[in-house]
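Researcher: I'd like a structural prediction for the single chain below. Treat it as a standalone chain; there are no partners to consider.
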Amino acid sequence: MLMKNLKKHLNLFLVLSRMHIISSDYRSFLGALWSFAGPLLSLGVLYFIFIDRFGRQIPHFPLRLLIGIVLLSSFKLVVQVVMQAVSANRDVIINSLTPPLVIVLSAVSVPFLKFIVEITVCIALAVFAGIFPFRNIFSLLGLSVFFFLLSLGVGFILAILYSFATDVLEIWNSISPILFFVCPIFYTLNMLSPWGRNLAYTLNPLTPFMICFQTLILGVQEPHLTSATYLHALLWALSLFLIGLFLSKKFEKQILEYL
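Model: Treating it as a single chain, here is the predicted structure.
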């Protein structure tokens, strides 16, 4: 019975994911490339802003900047989609036996595909530049999975708050741009003061992921990258994902009542 339910939910997830992808820009190859215009435009603007102050001290600065933009934009998009997925599909969840988790996971299929396409472009650029270490490809695949779990976990937690207070979405949209400045996107951690470095690394779950992705793609050893950095990233991802999943299950009935 359990396997039958899992298979049924998997089939439903695949059907819903396909619907989301078909209705998005990613239904065609050209559409997928067009969606990459946003990160490229951001790269062009930010490159000329930061190149003199920070860029000349950082190896492969343009590609490093692009990797950071892709990671941050993907994180923000997944969080926002998860926050709104339940409320946007309220009638389907209430009037059917469709599990809310299946609805949420299918909704993030497009942001996940977007992330895969964009990070693949970053890897392709690194290959073209002759700097990509091919031995890191499997590490990048695993890291991408945990990065997605981190995004889902934060999204689950904020989705619960959003169900009880819709102002949470507006607050998130107001404060999320700050993440660009507290993540090592256009600077490295050794450019910060010791207390700022510890604050950015210890309290920001995106920081270890930024460092790991940049190192694995660019092949340049970061001063603060150790095996503990990878462990730090994985612990952040698993902790927030499990907490978010637990809370969403615990408050599922209350969330539907408020909606």
